[in-house]
Every structure is written in structure tokens, then in C-alpha cells.
Amino acid sequence: QVQLVESGGDLVQPGGSLRLSCAASGFNLHSHAIGWFRRAPGKGRELSLCASTTDAITKYLDSVGGRFTFSRDNVKNTVYLHMQGVKPEDTAVYYCAAKEWQCSRQWGRYDYWGQGTQVTVPS
What we know:
Blueprint lengths: L2 E5 L10 E8 L7 E7 L5 E7 L5 E3 L8 E6 L4 E6 L8 E8 L12 E2 L3 E3 L4
Antiparallel strand pairs: 1-2, 2-7, 3-4, 3-8, 4-5, 6-7, 8-9, 8-10
């Protein structure tokens, strides 16, 4: 069965750190570009960053800056979003998505999607 499963979402205090995981089954993540999307309360889903198949990172949200980083563990077939210096505006459901070839801003262009994991940063 092909699926992506996120985990690691939690309530974290401002300035804290969190690591989100996205584990794949049924296909190899290393051959896919990975997008980390988020949907904040009352807002649409937006792409925070995307990692190409060579792990070139493109960040799509100015607010993320250097606070979010990406890593990939091909042995575990898992990718990670490392969040540092979290802010209340980072509160959202975070989703990973995978697609062949290049990154895309569009959710619908990805081939596989996770179910999301909630990150809450109180103000």
C-alpha cells in the first residue's frame, strides 16, 4: 500500500523546536521531490518549502526564513521538517507530499499526500 504518514506535531512554546517526520511505504522517497505544506486556521494550504530529488531546497514562505530545514533518511524512507524558533503564526496542520521530477507549488500536482500533523504554537 502506497502511503505517506506524518508524525511529530505537538504543542510547542514560542521559540521552541520541533521535528516533523514523514514516512513513506510502497514507494521510494529518495526518487521524489518533497513538499512540506501547511494549512493555518482559516487559511488555504500553502507550500513552505520543497526539496528536489537532489535535496536542493526552495523556500516559498518568507516567514519561514532559515527557521525551517529539511533532511532525508533514505534508509528509513523518511523525510523530516526541522522547525526552529517557532512562532504562533506557524500554528497549522503540516502535510508532506511527494512527486516525481521537480517541485511544484500546487498541491494537486503531487502524486502522494500525507494526512497531516498538527503543530500548535500558543501566543
